[in-house]
Amino acid sequence: MIVPRRLSKRARVLILIAALLIIPAIFLPIWTITLVAPQYPQGIKMSIYANKLTEYNPETGITSDTPRLINGLNHYIGMHEITPDEFSEFRWLPFAITAFCLLALLSALVGRGLFATLGWILFILFAVFMIGDFYRWLYEYGHNLKPDAAIKIEPYMPPVIGMKQLANFKVISLPGSGSILMFFAAILGPIILWLEARQRKLS
Predict the structure, then answer these.
(1) Percent of the chain having pLDDT more than 90?
(2) In a 3-state reduction of DSSP, which class is residue 83?
């Protein structure tokens, strides 16, 4: 599929929509991890944002800025305590998302096919990097277990996406609304290329 030199008005509007989809991801949860345990049958939900973590207990309706309850449960199996300060991503991720939003707006304004395509490729590479980074964190938390834990388990890999049973705990990991919006922004890229190629064939 050949990249068009100039984008049609329709393509530029779709790129603008992609930019508008990216903006809320700065403020919405990017990923959620829910831990279900016998003492918390409704689950404790940790939401990962671009710049912070929050923990929600549905039984009390309380949301906190530190995963205190999850850390308490993880302590039994010797998992390292989760502290927001150790995530350097929180310092630069909001700026990265903002930069991609501005890049999409600039692509819509300039209307050059190559510029827009390169921006989309960078966005996809960024998404792949972030998933890999998330995998790395999960791997480290699941494999660097304390030997003096009350419950001895084999090192394990928490799920990047999906559900996994661990002893009497159930871990559910799912994309947050911010990731879902960025996914829809990303799939607009190949849709735009297909529409532009189809338009050239008809003209």
Answers:
(1) 65
(2) coil
